[in-house]
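INPUT
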Amino acid sequence: MAGQYIEQNRERSLEELFELLRIPSVSAKSEHKSDMVKCAGWLADALRKAGADRAEVMPTEGNPVVYAQKIVDPSKPTVLVYGHYDVMPPEPLDEWNSEPFEPVIKDNRIYCRGANDDKGQLYMHAKAFETMAATGTLPCNVKFMIEGEEEIGSGSLYRWCEDNREMLRADIILVSDTSLIAWDVPSITCGLRGLAYVEVEVSGPDKDLHSGLYGGAVANPANVLAKMIASLTDDNGRITIPGFYDKVRELTPREREDFNKAPFSAEEFMKSIGIPDIYGEKGYTTIERTGVRPTLDVNGIWGGYTGEGSKTIIPAKATAKISMRLVPDQDHNEISRLFEEHFVAIAPAGVRVKVTPMHGGQPYVTPTDLPAYGAASKAIEETFGKKPLPYYSGGSIPIISGFENILGTKSLLMGFGLDCDGIHSPNESYGVDNFLRGIETIIAFYKYFAE
Amino acid sequence: MAGQYIEQNRERSLEELFELLRIPSVSAKSEHKSDMVKCAGWLADALRKAGADRAEVMPTEGNPVVYAQKIVDPSKPTVLVYGHYDVMPPEPLDEWNSEPFEPVIKDNRIYCRGANDDKGQLYMHAKAFETMAATGTLPCNVKFMIEGEEEIGSGSLYRWCEDNREMLRADIILVSDTSLIAWDVPSITCGLRGLAYVEVEVSGPDKDLHSGLYGGAVANPANVLAKMIASLTDDNGRITIPGFYDKVRELTPREREDFNKAPFSAEEFMKSIGIPDIYGEKGYTTIERTGVRPTLDVNGIWGGYTGEGSKTIIPAKATAKISMRLVPDQDHNEISRLFEEHFVAIAPAGVRVKVTPMHGGQPYVTPTDLPAYGAASKAIEETFGKKPLPYYSGGSIPIISGFENILGTKSLLMGFGLDCDGIHSPNESYGVDNFLRGIETIIAFYKYFAE
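OUTPUT
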């Protein structure tokens, strides 16, 4: 019955998703403030139409949160769906094959910023809810909280959760913001890395200088920044910040063995992203490097003349955005502090250094003996025909550990993305089949969870 | 008589210079192609009006060259004036206090891109020529060659000089494109550093990647570029490229002693450019570091997300513009080659590296026993009241050594800029007094040179 409803409403569902995707809700840029409000309003309307008996846009200090609910019977279990309506900036624009905010379907995939992350994935929940409500098969209570700041650290959601603890009471938080190992290797994400994100600025002269007249006698902020960044990792790919690894939980030999059972082909990995060789911390496999080891990556760097041709200057300053992915039991506040202390300490005399912590989040692990894990496992087995593997993702959803701290509720990460979706990259996409099977699987999850 | 003429025509001269400054003749950017042509035409007209009996815009493969001449008597000596009408890009635009291409006078200084480098300085020659022609005091023949590609390496001028050797025959090439040590410490530039300018690109994945999902398992091009740049200099500020110093002429103890007699205050130097400490190659003074030692400076660096807020990506590539200032007897072609070989050799396996040589020029030294040096020395002593010091500038005018090779003619570098002019920087300026006294001094130079 549910399957029939999904099929009959397929075109309308996709059209609605396209409407949602067209709103350029980029949280990193203040110019999109009004798009955030528009997007939240659109979602509240959509959830009301889908069957919510309460759906509203709730203000925060930052972007609003969309809250909706349908209480079928207070004695039944409650699922709290979490998602985010904000998206990554679309840049670099010239690498998109179509407009970043105009969805197009090609080879049965939806191309658009947010197609997967997270508009496509969160809208599966709206459609699963609508299907169950419309066909009278909703087996438990449902609540939705959809925020607009996930990509910039969920700054306002912590406070909003604290202020609304009672309203948000639930048995499980259900999240679709992760990927499957592969379409034919379904998985449930049990681990997420934490994140500490900083911006660093190295400044020297009070203006750009002529590199001939001053070159050799002035510490060049761009050269210095390069040296400082270079020194943050050693030749074995280990991070050199004192204390950085102190709380990293090393796997036991048995855990490592299990961990490396997940299917992995170095050749396919390299080919899928076009790299000439794999790389990473010495002594660990690729799966371990992204799953259980911390990282330090430059996300952006700029300084001096970056236009066409040549300009002979010593730049007044150089800047970098640096993020560190963290693993249990690292604490993002402590790591940000260690980074800042170290970075300031290694600055040479000829420059000034500024470190600005941007956002962060704690690592998270979902126990596989959780009832919701069992329900998700059965649901996926039903729709994919295969029992899912537990998977440790390299990604971060910082707010997840916040939910546990503030609400005391665990989260279940049942995402339907694939690596080829290119989230955060130009030409982000999401498979139409992933969208439709996701809806089916969510409905199956509710059924098993309410049992 | 000349002094009176300069004073009477002061306002008109400045108005004409302002017209020249308003043309945004940025050679680094192809969008300014028509401005280059416009600027050349304007200058040819101005030189004709100033008294040239021939003045024309001559095409090259790139931007045109302005050629003009007045032959008073073929048996008299000939001065060939060289200058350039192209200017540096004005970026960063938000650091300008006024429009980059709308000259304003403040505190008796002209603020505009090109106010000094080189429009203000070359226009002194047009006005000195006009003054001598109008007052019947031109004591020798004058030729002008004003190019439009100095800031991007004078690519077309070499060929143009080869094609016009006969026309360009002269006893000295007179150039005002350098600075005085200070207004009260006048100087003649006897040494210029050479230049080798390259752009390097480090690329890895075929698109920006999610730094969570891939972080730790992929060589990050921005981190790698930082490491590669960092390794190009050691802890003593020495450049590590094999063979880089092989042809560097070390000063004798006696030469060093003389060289360091030029007035220098570390405190004033630091204050003038707002740096917290001096810096440079160990074992050398600041004057030596800019005058007789080679350098390696990052002029620009960029990669990944550089906008507002945070974006968690591994950039597909990272790029830097790097220039090396060279000293006798380094050869820029050889240094570019050594750089490229080394940079490719040190690239780790997980990335691809591309090195693009941009432009270069040889170091140059003017002997102080040249007749033109003596004439310039007397002229400066007459107008400044002090005998000028010989000065070794850190800057480069690559074409100068080209002139000697192609035309067999030496150059005399009599510039009237000051360090505070901020050439190549935002808010470039040139003192009105420098402009006027420059005209006077050039006229005096002609007088002594013709004696």
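end of record. The mean pLDDT of chain A is 95.
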